[in-house]
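Thread: "does anyone have the structure for this chain?"

Original post by V.I.:
We have the sequence but no experimental structure in hand. Need at least a predicted one for the grant figures.
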Amino acid sequence: MQTELAPEFKDSADGREAEAILRKCVHCGFCTATCPTYQLLGDELDGPRGRIYLIKQVLEGKEPTRSTQLHLDRCLTCRNCETTCPSGVQYGHLVDIGRRIVDEKVPRPALESATRWLLKEALPSPLFGPAMKLGQSVRGLLPDALKAKVPAKQDAGTWPTRTHARQVLMLAGCVQPSMMPNINSATARVLDAAGIQTLVAPKAGCCGAVKFHLNDQDGGKAQMRANIDAWWPQVDGGAVEAIVMNASGCGVTVREYGHLLRDDPAYAHKAARISALTRDLSELLPDLVPVLRSRVKAPQGVVAYHPPCTLQHGQKLRGGVEVHLRALGFDVQVAKVEANLCCGSAGTYSVLQPELAYPLRDRKLGHLQQLQPTVIASANIGCITHLQSGTAAPVRHWIELLDQAISN
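Reply from O.Q.:
Generated one for you, tokens below.
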């Protein structure tokens, strides 16, 4: 796609990156067919190709409008379009650039700005845990919309105390320890059973995704640098073999630290090293299966697995969870229709765009429930919480199912 950047962008890093991405686009429209928001709304501007045109126009000097902002806001950043694109267009990076530029030029309504500020400041805050605990204590009294965001209190179980020669770092995350603490402890128990010790750096916090995708990109990068600092002593000393992510939304972000901090002279090298060491938890399954096979007592019934977009499109990891859990005796099935489509969670999207997020959730649950599962599984806390809000069937992280099968 031929692009003539306006003078204000021609010599900027964002402008050069955006132009390189735009030049790969050949207008084919394959992306439109796999875009969830286009399928719901049927508007070209609510699909990747339309949004690419909007961003191109802004970069060429056209003043963006509130309408431009809304079309970009409606994007889930699921990156299904990247999986579909035959030309390798890095749409996710482009839409991050476009949103930042548009937000600098188009003011938001006061209530919308306040909501976005509250989300980006509250979710990574140390106060989130006490607030979640309070919400859980009065959960039965909460209105349905709020109750959907407050999961029932969960027992985390015990954390293993054995030491092993093999060690990995794990990012605890910002909301997961308060909302679903058993995911982290189940991860540690399963890895312990396979002879791998899980370490958590106390000063590592939010991966930076929440702030970055709400256009506080400087704030998001500050959190990324803080995590690098927290991990670096063990990484630089060679004490750990990987940095393990059990939330695919965090994983896709940490994998991109090297890209996002590439122009930071103090952190570019370290960020690239961190990204190279980052592994989704499912990538450890080939090592875990042979060791754990004799100890696993897989339950009867179908596990309906929803692969998060951040795993299958963002990290390009497809099929691993299903294949390896089946090797351990689980009857894992994915939806026969639209398994590639987003469930509508998408970080803070379900709060900011509920009129699109909930139809996508119900559409996803409809396909999963056709499998008649005893449990629904996923690999990202956002997806798990969002799906659980629409079904009575239990929705769990797949590592919790494996942990339970070992414990039994």
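V.I.: this helps a lot. Residues 258 and 273 are 7 Å apart (CA to CA).
O.Q.: and The chain has a mean pLDDT of 95.
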